[in-house]
Amino acid sequence: MPMNALSLFLRRSRLAPLTLACSLLVSGAAWSQTAPEPAAATALAPAGIDMVNTLSGIPAPTLGAKAWLTLDATSGQVIAAQHPQEAVEPASLTKLMSAYVIFEALETGRLQLDQKVRISEKAWKTEGSRMFVDPNTEVAVDDLLQGMLVQSGNDATVALAEAVAGSESAFVALMNQQAKALGMKHTHFTNAPGLPDSDHMTTVEDLAILAQALVRRFPQYRHYDSQKEFTYNNIKQSNRNRLLWADSTVDGLKTGHTQSAGYCLVATALRDGRRVVTVLVGAASDAARTESSLKLLNWSFKNFDTVKLLDKGTPAVSARVWEGATETAELGLSEALWVTVPRGRAADIKTEARYAQPLMAPLIEGGQAGTLVITLDGKELERKPLLVLHSVDEAGFFGRLLDKIRLMFQ
């Protein structure tokens, strides 16, 4: 390049931004950008992420339970928890994972709701709560699902497990495989119904991950665990989730009880378009788990709000791209960004886009370019992968050369 042309280029380049600029694209939240940092872990409340109630002056309710957790199912944020990673027995809460695997089989066509399942001797003899199916009879999958989720029938659960995988042991392998895929790091199943076993353990955090996955992925099957009663073989049994009678906004999920596990309940309620999931294990009685779960739901809805900051596919930031066919790239999220905060604090949310400097072409659509960090009062509420919304190809030879020269003078 001739010297006079180079001098002219350098003078003009002073007018262009030489650092990554972040546009204010979302109202109600302050935005900034810094150097990149490592991606967050996949747990519900990973290291460095604060539970929402720590930013509120309102104390969590006192509950009579060994461990508990409350989660906003839309934002995925933990509102509050006690002993979230302590090992606990899931009892019949195990049937939530059995249901997940069965629902997946229904979605992929490996199982049909009107399909008849022959009841084996093993299923018929399974101890504990029962649907009272008879051996060597054929029962529809739809009826067995009601028997499993409404009546908590262990016999129905084993029959469905055998229908999906051929044997209960093969089905349990699918359960553990799915637990790993969902990020349930502290969970191991040894049977499908939730019978006591020293190696059959989970945590309330892992159960919350599972419950959130169920309500998000399989809303079409919500009617099973919100059903109040089911009659089979002229035997009527009521759903043991007493919240279905106590609060009309509650529409699932499942109870559990053994002598060693105590009384357990994973519940969910939908109020004014907002869904909360609560997990509670180790209560002293049926009444105690019902009362404590309702108290936790009411506290979560009353004291916290969930607000949308960004729509799926909407740019969070326009970032300067070097050596690209275009000078900027739009970075955003793969899904809408919802954030849960103490009630009345939505206007105080700050959002920070962190990505590599300089950001070099080529950039592939959907590739992660950085991290979006959401804070309140200087504490992190959430982190989300910041993705390239539209690919940016490399510039031609001279375009790349000009950007190389610009970078030399930063």
UniProtKB/TrEMBL annotation:
Location of the Peptidase S11 D-Ala-D-Ala carboxypeptidase A C-terminal domain: 304-394
EC number: 3.4.16.4
A GO molecular-function annotation: serine-type D-Ala-D-Ala carboxypeptidase activity
UniProt xrefs under InterPro entries: Beta-lactam/transpept-like (IPR012338), Peniciliin-bd_prot_C_sf (IPR015956), Peptidase_S11 (IPR018044), Peptidase_S11_C (IPR012907), Peptidase_S11_C_sf (IPR037167), Peptidase_S11_N (IPR001967)
UniProt keyword terms in alphabetical order: Carboxypeptidase, Cell shape, Cell wall biogenesis/degradation, Hydrolase, Peptidoglycan synthesis, Protease, Signal
Positions with a binding annotation for substrate: K254
Gene3D superfamilies the UniProt entry points to: D-Ala-D-Ala carboxypeptidase, C-terminal domain, DD-peptidase/beta-lactamase superfamily
SUPFAM superfamilies hit by this protein: beta-lactamase/transpeptidase-like, Penicillin-binding protein associated domain
First and last residue of the signal peptide: 1-32
Active site, per annotation: S92 (acyl-ester intermediate), K95 (proton acceptor), S152
Pathway: Cell wall biogenesis; peptidoglycan biosynthesis
The reaction(s) this protein catalyses: Preferential cleavage: (Ac)2-L-Lys-D-Ala-|-D-Ala. Also transpeptidation of peptidyl-alanyl moieties that are N-acyl substituents of D-alanine
GO BP: any one term: peptidoglycan biosynthetic process
Catalytic class of the enzyme: hydrolase
Record family assignment: Belongs to the peptidase S11 family.
Function: Removes C-terminal D-alanyl residues from sugar-peptide cell wall precursors.
Protein name, UniProt field: serine-type D-Ala-D-Ala carboxypeptidase
Species per Swiss-Prot/TrEMBL record: Castellaniella ginsengisoli
